[in-house]
Amino acid sequence: MINKVKKLYTHTGQYFTSLRVAPSDAQARTMLFLLGLGLLTVGMADLAHAQGANNIPSESSINYTDERIISSIRAVLAYIEGAFGALVMVAAGLGAIVSAAFGQYSAALGLFVVAVGAFILRSFVSTFFGSTLSQNL
Questions:
Q1: d(Cα 32, Cα 105) in Å, to the nearest integer?
Q2: pTM for the model
Q3: Rounded distance, CA 72 to CA 137, Å?
Q4: Residue 76: what pLDDT?
Q5: 89: how many CB neighbours lie within 10 A of its CB?
Q6: d(CA 125, CA 81)
Q7: Distances from the Cα of 128 to the Cαs of 67, 70, 71, 73, 81, in angstroms?
Q8: In the chain, what percentage of residues exceed pLDDT 90?
Q9: How far apart are the C-alpha atoms of 26 and 134, rounded to whole Å?
């Protein structure tokens, strides 16, 4: 029993000494993971209070505005429904024709779907979101 404890003590000491002096790749990754986990835990401890900390704004004091989201949607729809959408449609259509000519029928089918989708995108937007989407946004 005593020899078993001595052997365990010696093995544990050698393990931690090798960990400190020349850690293996797995040991180094484990130490970095535990360090990151510890930093996240300590850093988020203030946010874990049930009543909220003093420096965290309450839900009632935050004003939500969707102006940036609306302007982003307007910009994306303007590009896709405008000249860029036409360019995508033409490029995908030509790519589908060339792919089919070279025998790449799966690529041609994918490009064909993109071309048709770019062509009827305006109809989809007005069908699913109403004809006044651009005016509402």
A1: 49
A2: 0.44
A3: 10
A4: 81
A5: 18
A6: 10
A7: 22, 17, 19, 15, 15
A8: 25
A9: 55
